[in-house]
């Protein structure tokens, strides 16, 4: 009888093992300086090589650069620091600055900061990520690029509680940096709609815009003028050894920016990649 049941029990055991959730991978923050939060498996995926430019190549944003550097350096040294919202025009260096600041701090700081990227759609799992980081000795910056919310998206409420105001609050070893094209993280028509349809318009608007108040630093980014655009181009050319007459490069850059309808750091970078390709030069970051 036992011999007849044994194969059936083995098949049942195998089926249960396949249904069981995969064991969570151990988190090793020593594996890299940057990670991507994988919410489905509660794992921090190491990023061995971060796509970023040197902080000295970021032109036209000197004040924002100094403020964010100072805030991040204080955090690395164990001093009080603020969550930061970098908002403004697209392609103006918001996410590039966050990545460059972390690299700059790690060059001259004893405490190496960890940069952890969380996708906007995974913000509801932020409390779980914070619980994994709360008691660790490492200091981490959680970074959300292109943070914004639509009309039917209520996940901003959980983010508000996590940043400030919840019972546990933000761990002392964690800072939150976000970039957005919107100063209040929500479209203007969404805020106006709340004002026009609510019984108490001012309270409805306060509910929507109070999320941005959770960020102690607001750093605004705006489209650059032509002189700044040329300074960005010249900096890239000097750094990557793109030897062409300056006037010729500027003329080509103006034509390139006109086809894009904008002057920004992103447009300048795209132009430099095109120029380097035409010259047969490789770009090493």
Report the C-alpha radius of gyration, rounded: 24 Å
What kind of sheet is the major sheet?
7 strands, mixed
How would you describe the shape? globular
The N- and C-terminal alpha carbons lie at a distance of 69 Å
What is the string of helix and strand elements? HEEHEHEHEHEHHEHHH
Poorly predicted ranges: none
- β-strand percent reads 5-15%
How many β strands by DSSP? 7
Structural class: alpha/beta
Helix segment tally: 10
Average predicted confidence as pLDDT: 85
Describe the strand arrangement of the main beta sheet, using strand numbers. 2-1-4-5-6-3-7
Relative helix content: 40-55%
Describe this structure in words.
With 285 residues, the chain is of the alpha/beta class. It contains ten helices and seven strands. It has helices at residues 2-19, 62-76, 94-108, 126-133, 156-163, 188-197, 201-209, 226-240, 246-260, 265-279, and strands spanning 34-38, 43-46, 84-88, 114-117, 140-144, 174-180, 217-221. It has a seven-stranded mixed sheet. Helix 4 links the parallel strand 4 and strand 5 (140-144). The longest helix has 18 residues, at 2-19. The protein starts with a helix and ends in a 6-residue tail after the last helix.
């Amino acid at each position: 009888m036992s011999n007849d049941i044994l194969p059936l029990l083995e098949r049942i055991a195998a089926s249960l093992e396949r249904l069981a959730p995969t064991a969570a991978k151990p988190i090793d923050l020593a594996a890299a300086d940057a990670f991507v939060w994988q919410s489905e498996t509660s794992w921090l995926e190491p990023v061995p090589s971060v796509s970023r430019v040197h902080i000295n190549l970021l032109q036209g944003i000197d004040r924002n650069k100094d403020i964010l550097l100072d805030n991040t350096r204080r955090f690395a040294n164990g001093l009080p620091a603020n969550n930061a919202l970098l908002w403004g025009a697209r392609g103006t260096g918001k996410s590039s600055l966050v990545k460059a600041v972390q690299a700059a701090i790690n060059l001259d700081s004893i405490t190496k900061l960890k940069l952890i990227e969380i996708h906007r759609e995974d913000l509801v799992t932020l409390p779980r990520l914070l619980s994994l980081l709360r008691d660790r000795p490492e200091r981490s910056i959680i970074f959300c690029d292109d943070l914004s919310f639509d009309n039917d998206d209520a996940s901003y409420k959980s983010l508000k509680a996590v940043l400030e105001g919840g019972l546990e609050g933000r761990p002392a070893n964690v800072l939150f940096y976000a970039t957005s094209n919107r100063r209040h993280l929500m479209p203007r028509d969404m805020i106006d709609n709340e004002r026009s349809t609510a019984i108490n318009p001012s309270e409805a608007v306060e509910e929507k815009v109070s999320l941005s108040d959770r960020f102690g630093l607001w750093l605004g980014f705006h489209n650059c003028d032509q002189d700044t655009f040329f300074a960005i181009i010249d900096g890239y050319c000097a750094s990557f050894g793109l030897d062409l007459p300056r006037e010729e490069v500027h003329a080509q850059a103006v034509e390139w920016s006109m086809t894009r309808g904008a002057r920004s750091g992103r447009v300048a970078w795209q132009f430099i990649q095109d120029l380097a390709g035409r010259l047969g030069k490789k770009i090493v970051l």
